[in-house]
Amino acid sequence: MTAHRENDPLGGLWQQFPTPMASRFLAQMGWDFVVLDLQHGCLDYETVYECIHTLRSCGCRPWVRTTIGNYSEINKVLDLGAQGVVVPMINSREEAVMAAASAKYPPAGGRSFGGDSWYHYGDDYAGTANESTCECCRGDPFRAWSRWLLRRSD
Question: Distance between CA atoms of 34 and 12, rounded to whole angstroms?
Answer without folding.
Answer: 5
